[in-house]
């Protein structure tokens, strides 16, 4: 009888497929520390750039570097606009990102629109749509120019979709445009407060000016991409500045029409994770359909002696978030068929 050695047990590292980085709400400004709007949480405007540098050094030194990094929006703080420092601050952050040895995908949040118009952002370095994947013979999966969204493939059979959560919004849009009027009407119908950033007394507290929503056009496009991914047996990660699942977030921070986005996602089998920023506090919940909703803790409210970023390691049966500093570790198993 031939002697056969026992097969080596598969260690986690040998079955790891790839990894990617996540970081949210850097909100850099060349300002002394301040506080959030409620005055109860400290914001470290200058130090956020050092946190970003630390994250980039970490990713660059990983033995197998991440395929890409997802920057979840609010890259510089709205205060920059008051001090006419928007372009200068963006330049500093983008120069820091240039040290990163892998591609970064930029999501747009409310603070991008406090500083810049949508037209400006479209022509800026924050537009990473050039990294998109195009699916041959499927024109329905090509996003419109009317919103900032695209999809890409960091590894075979894994598709990442970047959504525009301010597609419907009063931020960054010309106030004389029909779109602005339409969005203001939606906002006012749900929010009678004089101060449209206040959720006071609202039945649906997400209808505030610092949030936004997804147009029907964008949701239809998302549906087409997910239909393709279902057929192609791909696993999908969705990225948005705004969260869409109440159990994983403060309800004041949700996308206006989060239910519509969930309805599209829940009508497909392929989505495994939804990454968002915006809340600064972080949050996590697995929904009834097995989609993991992960809100990444914001860099802006992270003390100098801590950190706030993560690396997600992808395996055939799960994703593992390895958090740094305020970002906790999480294991996200794919749902069983």
What attributes does this structure have?
CDP-glycerol diphosphatase activity, six-stranded mixed sheet, 2',3'-cyclic-nucleotide 2'-phosphodiesterase activity, Calcineurin-like_PHP, alpha/beta, EC 3.6.1.13, 337 residues, Metallo-depent_PP-like, globular, Purple Acid Phosphatase, chain A, domain 2
Short description:
With 337 residues, the chain is α/β, with parallel strands linked by helices.
Secondary structure: elements and pairs:
Elements (H helix, E strand, L loop, with lengths): L11 H4 L2 E6 L10 E2 L6 E2 L3 H15 L7 E3 L7 H4 L3 H12 L6 E3 L3 H6 L2 H5 L27 E6 L2 E5 L15 H13 L25 H16 L3 E5 L18 H9 L4 E6 L6 E4 L5 E4 L12 E7 L3 E8 L4 E4 L4
Parallel strand pairs: 1-4, 4-5, 7-8, 8-9, 9-11
Antiparallel strand pairs: 1-12, 2-3, 6-7, 10-11, 12-13, 13-14
